[in-house]
Amino acid sequence: MSDNTNQNSTDVAETDGGVKTEAYLDKEINLFKPATPFMRDNLRAMWGLFALWAIIVFGPTTAILFAPEFMTGTEVLGGFPLHFFITAVVTPLGALVLSAVYAFQRDRLDTKYGISHEDEEDAETGAVAADGGEQ
Amino acid sequence: MIEPVVLESALDIGFKLVPTLTLAGMLILFLGVGYFFRVAAVDELWVAGRSIGSIENGMAIGANWMSAASYLGVAGLIATIGYFGLAYVVGWTTGYFILLIFMAAQFRRFGKYTAPDFVGDRFYSDWARGIAAFTTLVIAFVYAIGQASGMGLMSQYIFGLSYEVGVILLMVVTIGYVALSGMLGTTKNMAIQYIILIIAFTLGLYATGWAQGWSLAVPYLEAGPEVAEAASLEAQLVEPFAFTSYYGWIALTFSLIVGTCGLPHVLVRFYTVDNERTARWSTVWGLFFICLLYWGTATYAAFGGLLYADGPGGGSFMDMPGGDADSIVLLTAQLAELPEWLVGLVAAGAVAAALATTAGLFITASSAAAHDIYTNLYKEDATQREQMIVGRTTILGIGILTMLIGLNPPALIGELVAMSFAIAGSIFFPVFFLGLWWEKTTKEGAISGMLVGMAISFGAILNDTALPMYTGVEGAVIPELAVWLPGTASALIGVPVVFTVIIVVSVFTEEPPEDVKRLVRQCHSPEPMKKMDSAEDVAADGGTPADD
């Protein structure tokens, strides 16, 4: 804690958003209390998308409880009852879209904070990773 | 509620040359790829040298995931239990999102070999490691029974063999090639298996739609009139809570979601990729590849239901026997009078699905036994050769056991697999989640949590499936309990209880040592790590960045 070098490196790390490993090694990991600006940004995206996900997954079936007539009586696309269609097709699609959105969002965060996975990969693994390990 | 698989079936049983050659060609291809990429080193056996890219790993996630339960079981469940069956579709797809945002990259950064590795290192306890390894073996075993059952059903159509001989034959092939090729070979194989199974599944669906004049380009969206017609024959197909309550639907979906996040053989797919970004994108790709199949399951159920009602069902389909339900995808193709080679391809795809998943499960089980139990708990200085021997012996042992139980499976394929999800959800999900996101989780908390999870999930399965099956009791031993705690969906109660136990025990026990906390923090740092580094290496060197 009183280690000078460590303090300094933490300060340096904070100015870039706290993406360096040593900024993390001294801070408590808590899902509700992000320790660095990077993690705060990341957690904000996570929680927002998580809330949407919960609605997409459990919402339609819960809606049947509250509006049974509307959910089961409405027909879409030539005969699908609304609840059946949403649950069978739209919900998986929704989860897929949210996943892609999160992955994009994380990539944007990486760019914002200057994190690159590619450099390291090229420098160290070269051909092996570039072709996915095919021989 | 759960009936044993009835083996008489509307399947056209008899030896068929072209489908047999298709399957044989497929198996030779798998064994060839397995042989070509055969491995001798432990790193490669278990994590493929961490060399797999995101699309290839996504396909492997897909193939690993889509077992006989997805390929055959889900459509059968929708056809026989209607809207309740859609809980499987939702649970088995949407869980990947949770895995993605909360766990995938962190697990990649943790960077060891197996799920019990995570539990053992994170909770600094050999007891925790041992419990996790045991759970891994149980999950692999329960999960694989469903696959063996699917293989047996398909071999009836392809070879005209009896169900039992089919189970034995195809399990022997599986055991042989997993033992031969290890993880690198199986990852290559999984990408191929995915391509085969998705083509077979989709082609069968499209061809049925064309042959019956039901659909042209996108059967998932065009099947509306067929769903309506099927619903007019069997109103329960679309009745939301005909077979279960709202609670039952939510409980099953929840269990399948948390089970997805707790399955060791899914987790290990994040250990095989080259970096954290690949871990994330391969999850997205994997979910896309998975959705391609799941979107088709409800369509298969509607098409298959109508064809079944026209033919063997005599006007109805929801009361079809278990063997028919589990082969509804194949039956649909057969009843649509598609050419034999095409129906055979659908059957071969189902075998590929079962084989790919079983391979993933057996690899995970063998690493739990060889790496976590034998090496870490029993013999610290075990040589690689010894580990390989133990690993392969485990594959043989668990394979034979699976084969024996698979001869007379206690439930439908989809239900068997759901039980392994309830186990994974109740025992592993809470320790993974809290282990990654709350550094003050202690070993005492984790161990007591896992034991409580075991009691809940095993107890539920014993109550409504295992005990009734082997004692001849009708229904569940304690029916009231089975309503709130079904064996397939015990995690809705299990997860909150286990979370509470872990948190309460952790608060009252001594905090984890500093190096363990650093390990957790390291798993969350966004700074990229070297390919072969594990979180432990980085956290232990006093915080020097990996690339300095």
UniProtKB/TrEMBL annotation, chain A:
Keyword Transmembrane helix: yes
Transmembrane segments: 47-68, 80-104
Region (Disordered): 115-135
Keywords, sorted A to Z: Membrane, Transmembrane, Transmembrane helix
Ranges where the Sodium symporter small subunit domain occurs: 36-115
InterPro entries (UniProt xref): Na_symporter_ssu
UniProt xrefs under Pfam families: DUF4212
Record-given protein name: Sodium symporter small subunit domain-containing protein
Organism: Natrarchaeobaculum sulfurireducens
Automatic annotation (TrEMBL), chain B:
UniProt-annotated stretches for the region Disordered: 525-548
InterPro entries hit by this protein: Na/Glc_symporter_sf, Na/solute_symporter, Na/solute_symporter_CS, Sodium:Solute_Symporter
Pfam families linked: SSF
GO MF terms, alphabetically ordered: transmembrane transporter activity
Main location: membrane
PROSITE patterns: NA_SOLUT_SYMP_2, NA_SOLUT_SYMP_3
Name of the protein: Acetate permease ActP (Cation/acetatesymporter)
Source organism of the structure: Natrarchaeobaculum sulfurireducens
